[in-house]
Design goal:
This protein has nine helices and six strands; from the N terminus they run E-H-H-H-H-H-E-H-E-H-E-H-E-E-H. It has about 220 residues and is of the alpha/beta class.
Length: about 220
């Protein structure tokens, strides 16, 4: 009897890549362009994973919808410019990320995907910069879904791959990822190296300290 298909979904920013430098720089530029006070670094990192409109609503709640929309557009332009200037160095892979992806990809019954607050353009550029095009069979981005923690990204990834909830895992660094996993009825694995404090990951089945611990964590869930 063949093993059932498994689906491993990764968040991107703060989980696979350390993009905080680009995120903080782009957010700073977008607020300065409107002559607004720039949120502090912790506030900026606290919203990583949300779609940009939701993020700006949290960072600039006292400002009008039109100002928030200007902040969104300013952020997109600044982030794109930073990525063009820095290339892959703008969002380096975390230690062990590539090895983990390659190891899981080599297992016939394991399918890999991403579920991210990034735009389609941003994700495609990141995947190309790191040469990861062949690994992810499903790519869910903010352009096509409600913001995390709505379960739409996971539900769509499962629909595209035909994998049931019991055999799906969401890996992420924020409370939004764990809440999305719970909303979708799948297992959440937290990572300790990202942008939310470990205490925010209380919805996770487990929290790993390094990518080396991921295969064992998955074995524990699926055996």
């Amino acid at each position: 009897m063949s093993a059932p298909l498994r689906l491993v979904l990764f968040d991107v920013d703060g989980t696979l890549v350390d993009s905080q430098g680009s995120i903080v720089a782009a957010m700073t530029a977008s607020f300065r362009a409107l002559s607004l006070p720039v949120p502090d670094r912790n506030a900026i990192l606290s919203i990583v994973g949300l779609s940009l409109p939701n993020a700006m609503a949290q960072l600039a709640p006292e400002h009008s919808d039109s100002d928030q929309q200007c902040l969104v557009e300013g952020y997109k332009q600044a982030y794109h410019a930073h990525r063009l200037e820095k290339g892959a160095a703008s969002s380096p892979l975390y230690p062990g990320a590539r090895d983990a992806i390659e190891t899981l990809h080599a297992v016939p019954e394991v399918l890999l995907g991403v579920a991210t607050g990034k735009s389609q353009r941003g994700l495609d550029a990141l995947i190309e910069a790191h040469g990861l095009e062949r690994y992810f069979v499903t790519r869910q981005v903010a352009d096509h879904h409600p913001s995390k923690p709505h379960p739409s990204m996971i539900d769509t990834a499962r629909s595209e791959t035909g994998v049931d909830a019991a055999n799906t895992v969401m890996i992420g660094d924020t409370r939004f990822d764990m809440d999305m996993a719970r909303a979708a009825g799948v297992t959440g694995i937290g990572v300790s190296w990202g942008y939310h404090d470990r205490s925010a990951l209380d919805g996770a089945t487990c929290v790993i300290e390094t990518f080396d611990q991921l295969p064992q964590a998955l074995d524990d869930i699926w055996t």
